[in-house]
Amino acid sequence: MAILVIIVLALLAYAYVLAGWAGMNKNTTLTGKTEFNDFWAGAKAYFGRILCGIVILAVIYIVLAVVGIVATFSVFLPLIMRFMPTGVIPGGFPPVPSGAPEISQIIAAVGNTIGIWLVIGTLAGLVFLFTVFWVQSAALDDVGALGALRRSISFVKNNFKTTLGIAALYIIATGFTEAIFPGGGGGGGGGGLGGGYGFSLVIPAPLAAIFRLLISTFFILYMFVVYADKKKPAKA
């Protein structure tokens, strides 16, 4: 119960901060400047729709995870039932051979499981990719959570290469950060006694966290700018 309360409080806090952040980024994009009052205004204006969007996406990801777990269980169930006493198996099930499964059956089950989770991972990645601009849409278009998700999907479909480019830049930036702050910024992560590999900077963890926050801040603002620019009507 305590864990559930902590999760709910963390979700509410995250939605509140993200809503305020969206308000600041919106003003920066439209006017070229912002102030801290924009945070409180954004939190007040967008908290509800941001929270709804987070919940909707969370439900989608949870459903995908449950489907993956159920599919995995259905793959291994015939193998598990081979070890169960005959009297325990319900009458509605078809006859199941007893004894240890063959190596080929185990390999096939493992392969099917990998395939299932590759499909689930691909679907989750597509959901993330096509809804990546939903916060920008909620703030700049001033629409609700469902409208923002729909507009994000439409925006990504029309600007797919741009979206992939932003994703690639973000991956490169975060990878570069991990290279500079290996192991979370505690002073290096490589090699054994008396030796190491790559370059390892002795930088405290708080500075590493600040650096990652700066990268996230830049890309969130950049996505606001890209969304606003691409949504402008073309000049005649």
Question: What does it look like?
Answer:
The chain has two domains: about 160 residues, no CATH class; about 80 residues, no CATH class. It has about 240 residues and is mainly α. Helix 2 crosses helix 5 and helix 5 crosses helix 6. It is elongated. The protein starts with a helix and ends in a 5-residue tail after the last helix.
Main sheet attributes: strand count, strand direction, barrel closure: none
The class by helix and strand makeup works out as mainly alpha
Question: Could you give the distance between the termini?
Answer: 60 Å
Continuous helix count: 8
How would you sum up the global shape? elongated
User: How many discrete structural domains?
Assistant: 2
What oligomeric assembly is this protein in? single chain
Rg, Å, rounded: 24 Å
Strand runs, count: 0
Stretches where pLDDT is under 50 for at least 5 consecutive residues are: 184-201
